[in-house]
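REQUEST FORM: STRUCTURE PREDICTION
Request ID: SP-0412
Submitted by: Lab K.M.
Chain count: 1
Length (residues): 154
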Amino acid sequence: METNDSRRKFVATGAAMVAAAAAATSATAQAQTPRPDATIDIRIFRAGFIVGGSGGSGTLYFRDKGYNLGVGGVSLGATIGVARADFVGEVYNLREARDIEGTYAAVGASAAAAGGVGITELQNQRGVRLRLQGTQIGLMVSIDLSGMIISIRN
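STATUS: Completed
RESULT:
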C-alpha cells in the first residue's frame, strides 16, 4: 500500500514535469515567432480622374530613432476621386536604416479583410520584409502595394 508521502512525491514530480513541458513549449513558440527589427507607418494619397497621381510618406522607427520616408510607385486602382490609405506594421531583416530603401514586391499570399482593413507582406531586393496592416478611406477600388518604392528623406 502506498503512503501519503509517496503519493505527494508522485504528484509533485508530475506537476514539475507538466510545468517543464509548458515552459519548453512556450520557449519554442517564442523562438519560432521572430521579433521585428523595427516598426513602420505609411500614409499614401491618390487623386485624379482617369489620370492621377499617388505618393506618400511615412516613418521608420529603428533603434530608438525615427526616419522620415518617401513612398512612390503605388497603384490604388481606378482613378476617380481621392483616396488615402494608412498602414502600420513590422519590419524584419533590417540591419541598418538604409536597408529599408528599395522597391517592394508581394511575398506569398496577401490577405484582405472586410471593412477597409487589409494585411499584406512585402519584401525588397535587400531581403527587408514588411508586414503591413491598414485601412483605406475614399473612392479608389483597391490598393496594390507591389512596386512600392521607399526612400529615406533627408
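NOTES: Confidence is low (pLDDT under 50) at residues 111-115.
Reviewed by: T.R.
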